Amino acid sequence: MSDTNAQSVGFVRDKMLPESAPPTLERGVVKWIRENLFSSVLNSVLTLGSIYVIYWIVAHLYPWLANSVWSASSLNECREIRDATVGPGVPSACFAVITDRWEQLLFGFYPNDAYWRPVMALVAFLVAIAPVLFVSLPRKLLWFSAASPFVMFSLLWGGSIWGPITVAVGFGVGYAAFVLLGRVAGALVSVLGSIIAPVLFWMFLAGPIAGALTAVAPIGLPFVESRSFGGFTLSVIIGVSGIVLSMPLGILLALGRQSDLFIINKVSVAFIEVIRGVPLIVWLFTAQLILGYFLPPGTTFDLTLRVIIMVTLFSSAYIAEVVRGGLAALPKGQYEGADSLGLDYWQSMRLIILPQALKISIPGIVNTFIGLFKDTTLVVFIGLFDPIGLSNAIRASTDWNGIYWELFVFIGLLFFIFCYSMGRYSLFLERKLQRENR
Amino acid sequence: MSTITDPPKPGFRLSQLIYDTRYRSLTIQTVALILLVLAFSWLISNTIQNLEALGKDFDFGFLSSRAGYDINQMLIPYDNSMSHGRAALVGIANTLLVAFLGCVTATVIGVLVGVLRLSKNWIVSRLMAVYVEAFRNVPLLLWIVLIFALLTESTPQPRDFREGGDASMLFSESVAITNRGVFIPNPIWGPNSGILIAVFIASIIGAILYRRYAKKVLFDTGRLLPMTWPALAIAIIPTFLFYFILGRPVSLEYPVLGGFNFQGGLQLRNSLIALWVALSLYTGAFIAEIVRAGILSVSKGQTEASFALGLRPNRTMNLVILPQALRVIIPPLISQFLNLTKNSSLAIAVGYMDVRATLGGITINQTGRELEGMLLLGMFYLALSLIISSLMNVYNNSKKLKER
Residue A411's closest CA among B343, B140, B138? Predict the structure, then answer.
């Protein structure tokens, strides 16, 4: 049967035709452009508008950048060089101000021969933060992270190294008290002891010990006053200390706000709302003008330190709200599950609740940190020299009077790099933690 | 024979205060309360001692004494013979002005950019991403200073507007952008203009009522009344008619170049414009991200389902996507409005006379009342934050998912 059927067909193709290419409009760049840029009238208008905007920006910026002058000692010299090379009146950036003053923008009035110290402190910070950020690094590095605050302090401020060391020993004393008393007298006494012992140590023993050791072996870098800190060094110092200190405080406040204990709850709510309701500038002026009223008569302490304390309190209130969001987003079963396992409050928080809540709130926490880092520029208003304050100071000198955009570009770019990389890290962390969840 | 006896009732022991969960919370709270009271009394006693040492007292009487300084931008009448309290009110009005303007424009920018960033158009979405990242990652202070410098350095001086100068006014000789600010026509409210305003407000209310009515008809009967055009007509036409019936009560006073500066018209100082533009662009970038997240949070199935029901794209947007997206958008939007309001205190960078500059700046410097001034300033911002957030929470509750 099949034979006869086969016979009846006039023509059977026994070879595949070669595939012909799709029509020009439906392939490659043309297709992409048609679908992505000109799919409708509105889209075409938008595309042309954006191209015009980009053209306008480039047309204004390119000559300015291309004709830039990189070495000169004053704005007038810059203009002379420009007139000689590209002709008068042509837009030209004078980045010579950056090559002339970049050290000041980065280090403020830090002594010239000691610029290696902030750099080394930054390196120490990066090494210390690396094992916290990336789990794949060896865990032993965490010991360095614990020691790094003291290392960074002695690098930045200098002075005798025995001061920071005795402060660090205080923490060791606290831990020893915790372990020893825990064996003898039970949990509560050991917790109290671990708080009281180091405080007593710092109040009565640390000073004399450090003094004696300094007298015996005066090791240490020359002391640098905080007044000479400035530029990005100052921004990074305020930003990093604010970030590191506000995190634990913020978590405690969030737990306080979620707590059933009436007084603790109300105190946390009041603190958070008051801090968040008032702008940072007002808090900084408070630190500058009226903090002295609240302290015992005759107390004065460093303005930089006051600013760090204020910035820490400020951002801890924001962190608290972010973490509270994370705590509220956890299903109630997690709390009940932790309770039914017989864990006490701190155990359940530490082992069950906070790891999950913090994971949920990572984006918000990083956003708060970015905001905090950007807000460090506000210290210019209470007389500290952050990059923007220094740019004003540079403009006030006769050499660079009238220079704006080059300084703004440099400062903006540095902040952008810092903040953008923080944002990228938070995305990386989110993605990594999400994958572990599947 | 076994008898069940009650376990011996232990008397109350002191250690129960710590180890018994029934009493522990009370113990902790009592201790916390005592510490709190101690801390506050320590702070207050320090303050009293310090004030005594300086020979100062705690008194708000300075608010009614003569201020003696000028304010260059004001919404309510003020001159330097008025009181410090009045100067503070002028500052408050200026803060509210820039915060309100900023919130409106930031929302407009944010919604536009957020939607455009989701567009399939590659160039547009890239451009918007660049805008958002640039503004989110650079300090607001830098933007304010930069825009202020842009306004003062690269705009023409008033004298360039003279005959033969290289600058000219915009919009048929009515708007002049100079390095001393932007001059716009000033409306002169003649007699009967009160009636005109009343008519305008009434017609806006009428338009809203019409929309409600059309919606009710739609939901009750399924009959679709035209909404946009009639509502617009109701809102605009009566005002127009009355404008001519009443004999043009409102006229415009144009800025005219006289001497070294423009005379007449309304001068928007560069400080206000720089602050306003920078706040709107900066907060707009954040709002754009919020709007984008909100729209992305509505699952694609919702769009597909409403298409399957036969809804057209714009009705899908209005009736299905937006109501759900708004629920996600509004809470963070509130906090952005609050941020903008608080960030308006950066006016200090450009010399805009907001409440921080009058009450928290010049008044404090002149009277030496730091404690009282900062306290009032803080209370003002706190009250403003609480009011805005409670108003927006009312709105949020009306949009929230109603679970029954």
Answer: B138
> How far is residue A185's CA from residue B150's CA, in Å, rounded to a whole number?
69
pLDDT at position B130 over 90: yes
Q: Using a CB–CB cutoff of 8 Å, tell me whether B348 touches chain A.
A: yes
β-strands B266-268, B181-184: how paired?
antiparallel
A438 pLDDT band, cuts 50/70/90, is: very low
- Name which of A149, A132, A150 is nearest A141 in CA terms: A132
Average pLDDT over residues A396-411: 84
Contacts of A262 in chain B (CB under 8 A): 29
pLDDT at B131 over 70: yes
Instruction: Provide the chain B residues 353-392 that lie in CB contact (below 8 A) with chain A.
Output: 356, 360, 364, 370-371, 374, 377-378, 381-382, 384-386
Domain ranges of chain A: 23-66, 160-221
Q: Report the residue of A37, A41, A42, A50 to disrupt the B interface, i.e. the one with the largest count of B CBs within 10 Å.
A: A50
pLDDT, chain A, mean: 84
Q: From residue A153, give the alpha-carbon distance in Å to each of A160, A249, B238.
A: 11, 21, 72
Q: Which residue of A has its CA nearest to B43?
A: A294
Segment A369-374 shows an average pLDDT of 90
- Cβ contacts below 8 Å, chain A against chain B, sum to 150
pLDDT single digits (tens) A98-121: 888 888 888 888 888 888 888 888
pLDDT level of residue B65 (50, 70, 90 thresholds): confident
**pLDDT tens readout for residues A51-75:** 999 999 999 888 888 888 888 888 8
- Are residues A378 and B124, on separate chains, in Cβ contact within 8 Å? no
Q: Count CB neighbours of A372 within 10 A.
A: 23
Q: What are phi and psi of B67, to 5 degrees?
A: -75, -55
Question: Which residue is closest to A46 within chain B, CA to CA?
Answer: B124
pLDDT reading at B192 higher than 60: yes
pLDDT for B278 equals 93
What kind and span of H or E run contains B182?
Answer: strand B181-184
**How many C-beta neighbours within 10 Å does residue B34 have?**
10
- Those residues whose C-beta lies under 8 Å from the C-beta of residue A333, and which sit 6 or more positions away, are none
Task: Report the pLDDT value the prediction gives residue A389, as an integer from 0 to 100.
Answer: 86
Confidence band of A145 (pLDDT split at 50, 70, 90): confident
Per the DSSP assignment, residues forming a β-bridge with A404 are: none
At position B394, the amino acid (one-letter code) is V
Q: Which of B280, B340, B353, B351 is nearest to B73 (CA)?
A: B353
3-state secondary structure chain A: CHHHHHHHCCCCCCCCCCCCCCCHHHCHHHHHHHHHCCCCHHHHHHHHHHHHHHHHHHHHHHHHHHCCECCCCCHHHHHHHHHHHCCCCCCCCECHHHHHHHHHHHHCCCCHHHCHHHHHHHHHHHHHHHHHHCCCCCCCHHHHHHHHHHHHHHHHCCEECHHHHHHHHHHHHHHHHHHHHHHHHCHHHHHHHHHHHHHHHHHHHHHHHHHHHHHHCCCEECCCCHHHCCHHHHHHHHHHHHHHHHHHHHHHHHHHHHCCCHHHHHHHHHHHHHHHHCCHHHHHHHHHHCHHHHCCCCCCCCHHHHHHHHHHHHHHHHHHHHHHHHHHHCCHHHHHHHHHCCCCHHHHHHHHHHHHHHHHCHHHHHHHHHHHHHHHHHHHHHCCCCHHHHHHHHHHCCCCCCCCHHHHHHHHHHHHHHHHHHHHHHHHHHHHHHHHHC
Confidence of residue B309 (pLDDT cuts 50, 70, 90): very high
Mean residue pLDDT across chain B: 82
